[in-house]
Amino acid sequence: MRLADFDYDLPPDLVAQHPAPERSASRLLHVDGATGRMEDLAFRDIVSRVAPSDVLVVNDTRVIKARLHGRKDSGGEVEILVERVLDASRALAQVRASKAPKPGRQIRLARGGVVEVLGRQGEFFELLFLDGPVLDVLEAWGEVPLPPYITHEAAAEDERRYQTVYARVPGAVAAPTAGLHFDAETLDALRAKGATIATVTLHVGAGTFQPVREDDPARHVMHAEWYGVPQATVEAIAAAKARGGRVLAVGTTTLRALESAAASGTLAAGTAETRLFILPGYRFRVVERLLTNFHLPRSTLLMLVSAFAGVDTIRRAYAHAIARRYRFFSYGDAMLLERGPQPASDPQ
What we know:
The chain has 2 domains: 3-63 and 159-338, QueA-like (3-Layer(aba) Sandwich), CATH 3.40.1780.10; 67-141, Thrombin, subunit H (Beta Barrel), CATH 2.40.10.240. 20% of the residues lie in helices and 27% in strands. It has 348 residues and is α/β, with parallel strands linked by helices. It has a 9-stranded mixed β-sheet.
């Protein structure tokens, strides 16, 4: 397939700039990848679409205030977007400046504090935070790193709403947005019904917004992301499948963590880095249902959902959503996808 196979035209006014008034007040498009059937729902209807035997797996990563502004010691303005926290005092970051800062140069942050450039690792700069632990500095002086298609500056509303209600482990620079729709009442209703809720952690990196530039998508190189799958989640999934339940991944990040942890053929607990790139033809080992938002044209995430539910099914679903004026991207509406037919062979 070619990159153009994953393109579509989206009216700009369908890009959600703000979240719905209430988390669970968004819309939900239920799509069956096996039959192509579509159903327009409210997000709260997800409770009725989950069986007591099912297990929902969520990504409990917490978004950090990863965007900083400052000036080089030479006076030039700098914008820093932390990609990954390496340890208590060091981080990898994108640094935007008129001239790339050299090792040994310092950047004085606009809200306080100083960082020193230690060197480069590919497109990222390694930074040393001189005024305390990285996470403490970001929490005190950083800004919520809203996606580039959201045009307003981060405000207090974004600090609360660009974060899931179950966020626990700090480290993401972009939210696992499918989870933004859940409020405590919806989660309680799912538990009361008997469904199990389990967790993984995948720290979403800024590379999630990296465009695919190769005409042949298979040549695209994915950014690396850290993930962890607890033993309790492996056991919860095994128990759900034993009782005839299905695995519902809340978000593409959860799906990638689970499928990465099952690369050997069997789901195993542990932590690792993943560059898993899921294209049509991939054979899914763990996940049978996927809750996800609508994704950008020509993106790796659009390719993933096309692999999950079927290329033609996703094309029709997106056309349906545009015609019915669903809201798109991070603050937009959601889709509940039932997995389409699986290929006969394992992924390459």
